[in-house]
Design a protein that fits this description.
Structural class: mainly alpha
Distance between the termini: 48 Å
Number of helices: 11
Oligomer: single chain
Radius of gyration: 22 Å
Largest sheet: none
Number of domains: 2
Strand content: under 5%
Helix content: over 70%
Order of helices and strands: HHHHHHHHHHH
Length: 332
């Protein structure tokens, strides 16, 4: 199975990512110890030259990591027909014990990569590269995550067995069973939807303040990142049931299928990227503002807040449309 083109692409991306991030983290340790932008010494000049190459390579890898999550899920959904008991990506991911840890690590690395890209873009705006130490400290912390994600992904694909009978989503995402998936499915739909649209309303109300005040931007970023968990709970407990038009189906992966118009992609893409931008907003607003970016960083934050708000609004419109067009009456 590992010779399937999408799997080969994912495994190759994992190897490249592990290699580049590990080498970048080792270079980052040197930066953390010796970086001094005010120095004209040979060591500093050498590091400044190297950081262009390292940052460019890491940037490409981080972009690849953003795409890898979508490809991982799409491939899992595509391969569901190969495993007995699998109806969607959930069944494929649960074929062995490495699938779910691999998926979770992919999600974590997605957000870490998006955060690093945001900080790196801000660093390139300053004449003195004010966030160089920060972004390489982040890279050092990210290295174990990328390694763990790559290793679990390799173990997952190497241990795929088409003879295994896996669990379908209807058994995992049901309130009658035990486990996290069942707990999410059993959440009160009325409360979940109130938290979903209430949270979106709060972010929309806070957005104009976040564009003008740094403290408000920091709060917006923290709340926007935290909202991701609220949205996932609401999708599983309520929104997905409206899409399926049955109160007992709560799978967050079946909505990616063509029979539901691929609406899952329309929901998840703006949600993931809006939440990722919120992380970047929080980091740039909370971290001390460097002198070289006092004039340019506020505009950068405004653009990020506007983009995040727009994506959250798109997510809200799609979720509301899915609920209003449904024939299911879930809340009386």
């Amino acid at each position: 199975m590992i010779f399937d083109p999408p799997i080969m692409a994912l495994l190759l991306a994992a190897v490249v990512s592990m290699t580049v991030v590990t080498l970048g983290a080792l270079f980052g340790l040197r930066v953390l110890r010796h970086w001094d932008i005010n120095s004209g010494g040979a060591r500093q000049i050498g590091m400044e030259k190297q950081t262009y190459l390292v940052s460019t390579a890491v940037q490409l890898v981080m972009l690849m990591q953003l795409a890898s999550l979508a490809l991982f899920v799409r491939n899992a959904d595509r391969m569901a027909v190969l495993f007995t008991g699998a109806m969607c990506a959930v069944g494929t991911i649960n074929v062995n014990g490495y699938g779910m840890p691999s998926f979770i690590m992919q999600v974590i690395v997605f957000f870490a990569a998006a955060l690093w890209l945001t900080v790196n873009a801000a660093d390139n705006m300053g004449r003195d590269y004010p966030y160089t130490r920060l972004k390489y400290a982040m890279l050092v912390l990210m290295a174990p995550l990328v390694l763990a994600a790559g290793i679990t992904e390799w173990l997952y694909f190497l241990n795929l067995d088409p003879n295994v009978i896996t669990s379908c989503c209807s058994k995992l995402f049901t309130p009658e069973n035990a486990g996290l998936q069942a707990d999410l499915a059993s959440a009160d739909p009325k409360l979940a939807l109130f938290a979903l649209f209430g949270g979106l309303g709060l972010l929309a109300a806070l957005s104009p303040l976040a564009m003008r005040h740094r403290a408000a931007a920091g709060l917006y970023g923290v709340l926007g990142a935290a909202f991701f968990a609220v949205a996932i709970v609401a999708i599983i407990s309520a929104v997905s049931s409206y899409i399926y038009e049955t109160p007992t189906h709560h799978c967050p992966f079946c909505i990616l299928k063509p029979q539901y118009g691929f609406i899952g992609y329309a929901l998840y893409l703006p949600l993931f990227f809006a939440s990722a931008l919120s992380l970047g907003i929080a980091a740039l607003a909370i971290w001390p503002r460097p002198e070289s970016l006092k004039a340019r960083l506020p505009a950068r934050l405004r653009h990020l807040v506007a983009a995040s708000t727009g994506l959250f609004a798109l997510f809200a419109l799609i979720a509301a449309w899915a609920i209003l067009r449904s024939h299911l009456i879930l809340i009386s």
